[in-house]
Amino acid sequence: MLQVINVLQNAINSNQSIASVTIIKEQGSSPRGIGSMMLVNEDGLVEGSIGGGAVELKAIADAQVALLDGHSKTVSYPLASLDMTCGGDIEVFIQVYVQKDEILIIGAGHICEELTYYLKPLPYKVTVLDHRDEFAIASRFPECTVICNTVVEGLNSIKFHKKTNVIIVTHGHEYDEVALRYVLKQPYKYVGMIGSQTKISKCFNAMIVDGYSKEQLASVYAPIGLTLGGETPAEIALSIVSEIQSINNKKNAIHLRDVNQMTIK
Fold it and tell me: Which residue, 19, 59, 106, 145, has fewest beta-carbon neighbours within 10 Å?
């Protein structure tokens, strides 16, 4: 049981989706007793057991459905109906721990400072990456993970997943493009890049030549943000956070990238 708890805690700490399946009630004969537990992720059994056989296979499948739905639930299993010779009944509680959205900010300048201010009360794990040691300082971003490294080496240290939101706001066009080229080859939920229409068109066309697809580039929110107006770092940051919130909450909004569609050759 201790091993199961340790694996569960590690999964939660590392922001992985996982479900615990615990026997909470039993009647008659059953393969395992109350309190028996196993852990399940999207790929199947991770650790532990509630008795093996058909009931465990059914519970694993039910836990995977619960992970997709994002809801915990209680399920009863009449063992006789599963052709198990013990013939009793068990009830399990499936507790779902859903992976949280993460935000990766590439570029630790003034816009990044404002972004972390707006993101502070929101339920995101935030990581900041910059190669400049005078900017990538933990004291500037006290509630964030701060990585001081080159774009590529820093990105190599990050585990991307389907709930990773990427904000590219570096201090140079060349760094933005390097970051975008890397990120588009990873799983992600959102990626936005700052810049003018001219700069972005030039970047996208160069990437097309190098084999990136128009579909990949169409997924990028660039220019980044909503059409809120304003030019200060705080105003730009507000439009970026608003864009991510509108997408995550499935709300209609006017995105800067959609105002003047650029031409990709």
Answer: 145
